# Entry
Amino acid sequence: MPLKRCVLRDIHTLVQFYNELARQLAFPAYFGRNLDALWDVLSGEVAGPFEIVWEGSAQAQANLGVDYAKLIILLNDLVAERDDFTFTLR
# Structure
């Protein structure tokens, strides 16, 4: 199966983050746009291999504050959970 790639750019809000992931990785319509729902979809419903590349992550960190830290923790935990997922900050 070919690698699916999600590239995040110019993320200014948490809603925008969720919407971009949902769009690029074809999340199910019922995705709840919260951390628990994000974990459930990424850990079990998105077929691998896939990667998320977050460009402009320093600006996103400034925009999202504490939510950015929570997202980074979740995505790094997912790297440890799935051998068919990679995550890169740029």
Q: What stands out?
A: The CA atoms of residues 31 and 38 lie 8 Å apart.
